[in-house]
Amino acid sequence: MPIDIFAADEQASEPVDTDRWVRLARSVLDAEGLKGDVELSMLFVDEHAIADLNQRFLGDEGPTDVLAFPMDEHLVEGGRSPDSGGTGPGVSSEQPELPTMLGDVVLCPAVARRNANATSRAYDDEIALLVVHGILHLLGMDHAEPDEATAMQRRERELLGKYHSS
């Protein structure tokens, strides 16, 4: 059962090696213990696109470096409509195993370049950090509280140290 990662470069301002970031994402998901059919998408977009998403979904103005959109897992109740009382005659009640849809990580390489320049970090190191950061958000980590931020940063450093080289 594979881990499927879709990556698309939908911007032209900065170079993006999507294959490299797919490999990093796969390593992170493996390290985090994901098993079975798992799907993730990574989109590299321009500043206008990420600013629009940032405004629509978070209510924040302007472009940001990374956004994570976890897929909410809603259990679909089996049965027949309208009473969900059973599958009916001749229909198997076993559901096929569906892939786990983790969600989308949307990254803005132009903002990543500015962040890298501001922190004297290599551009590829910044993109790697954003890939890992976005995936950890999809897996439920957050940095709203100081202890959460510390744990998330520690895990980012561990994963980057193991799976990313400049």
Entry keywords:
166 residues; 5 helices; alpha/beta; globular; 4 strands; 4-stranded mixed beta sheet
Describe this structure in words.
The longest helix has 18 residues, at 146-163. It is built from five helices and four strands. A four-stranded mixed beta sheet has the order 1-2-4-3, sandwiched between helices. Helix 1 (18-31) packs across helix 4 (123-138). It has 166 residues and is an alpha/beta fold. The chain has helices at residues 18-31, 47-58, 109-119, 123-138, 146-163, and strands spanning 3-9, 38-44, 66-70, 100-107.
Low-confidence stretches: 74-85
The overall pLDDT average reads: 87
Number of helices in the DSSP assignment:
5
State the shape.
globular
Structural class: alpha/beta
> Rg to the nearest angstrom?
19 Å
Order of helices and strands: EHEHEEHHH
Strand order of the largest sheet: 1-2-4-3
Summarize the structure.
This protein is of the alpha/beta class. It is built from 5 helices and 4 strands.
